[in-house]
Amino acid sequence: GCLISEYPPDIPITRYTFPVRNRIISALALGTVVIEAGIRSGALITANHAIEQGKDVFVVPGNPNVTEYKGSNALLRDGAKPLLDAGDIFSEYISRFSDKIDIEKAFKKEPKPVTPQKNKKILNETLSNEAKIVYNCIDTQKFYPDELECGLDSNKLLSALTELEMEFFIRALPGGQYEICK
Questions:
Q1: Domain spans in the chain, listed from the N-terminal domain onward
Q2: Mind listing the pLDDT tens digit for each residue in 124-174?
């Protein structure tokens, strides 16, 4: 892992620190994806950082009559790349990374997730105790992190979810939801 910040460790997180953090994140990425952004959305700040840095900006088009998409649609009007599916991102980068991207593997059909069972046990010994606790708390196929009642603070919960995602026990879905994979 890596921690990158322009702030010393004792500086509290405020709404003013997010644009600085997002500027760093957009600089580290090849591109930025905007799913939904109103006219005054923080996502627009990140997208503008990416544009200033010469990075790609992909935008999921939204209903032009819905306020929450006014900023997204403005980005599209100003030259952002429309994002209709993952293939749009692959087609943008395939020529640059043809030696690293295997299209057949990238678009192979995903295995169908199984329905979790109550009181399931993880046999994977490499998982942290927190990840095992979180996994055993999940009792629905799809869930939001704030629905889990497993006695962990939010930092440990999110860390455990990330670990479970990296080990393919769960996968992130749009809108902050997760789904069981194993």
A1: 17-106, 129-180
A2: 678 899 999 999 889 888 998 888 888 888 888 988 999 999 888 999 988
Q: Rounded to 5 degrees, what are φ and ψ at 170?
A: -135, 165
**Is the pLDDT confidence value at 2 over 90?**
no
- Cβ(60)–Cβ(37) below 8 Å: no
Which tokens belong to 120? 């399931």
Give yes or no for a contact between 143 and 177, defined as CB atoms under 8 angstroms apart. Answer: yes
Global pTM value? 0.56
CB under 8 Å to 165, separation ≥6 — which residues? Answer: 171, 172, 178
Identify the CATH assignment for 17-106 out of 3.90.480.20, 3.30.365.10, 3.30.750.24, 3.40.50.450: 3.40.50.450
